[in-house]
Design goal:
Helices cover 68% and strands 9% of the residues. It is mainly α. 32% of the residues are buried.
């Protein structure tokens, strides 16, 4: 793993955040197309995954952690157990992060999604529903921005 890989991942995360930010604060208010909400959460999800990967890559490079090949779940546990405290990522941040990951996984597996008022309803196979609206996405976007800032600070590039 090259020493710059963690910075590349972080830069890609920042680019995803910019796209999501533009979509939710500029494009969505003008177009009002609810499908944009699904695209926005995909960009937020990608930003979060890239930020987590950046932290894992950096800590692995500095021999603070071991990573598991082809086991994203194990690596996510390493992130939670060993990395999050070092980067001042709170329990609340972790819970919100898990919430975003669960929504996107639910969206990928969902047999049905539909629009209701100002929300997108994602229905699981067990008929459990998850609601997404612009305000929830703004909250998740804020989480992604906060994690990037904590990561930059942890890397010493504040």
């Amino acid at each position: 793993m090259t020493s710059e890989k963690h910075l590349e991942s972080l830069q890609r995360a920042i680019a995803q955040i910019r796209i999501a930010d533009h979509m939710i604060y500029v494009t969505y208010p003008v177009i009002k197309d609810k499908r944009l909400l699904l695209k926005t959460i995909d960009h937020i999800y990608e930003a979060l995954i890239l930020t987590i990967n950046s932290i894992l890559q950096y800590d692995f490079l500095n021999r603070r952690i071991n990573l598991y090949k082809n086991n994203a779940q194990e690596n996510f546990e390493v992130f939670i157990q060993k990395c999050s405290k070092r980067y001042n990522i709170t329990f609340e941040d972790i819970n919100e992060l898990k919430e975003v990951l669960a929504i996107v996984e639910s969206h990928k597996k969902s047999p049905m999604e539909f629009l209701r008022k100002e929300q997108i309803v994602i229905m699981s196979e067990s008929l459990k529903t998850t609601l997404i609206d612009a305000e929830k996405l703004k909250k998740y976007l804020g989480l992604a921005k906060k994690l990037v800032e904590k990561t930059r600070f942890g890397f010493g590039i504040g």
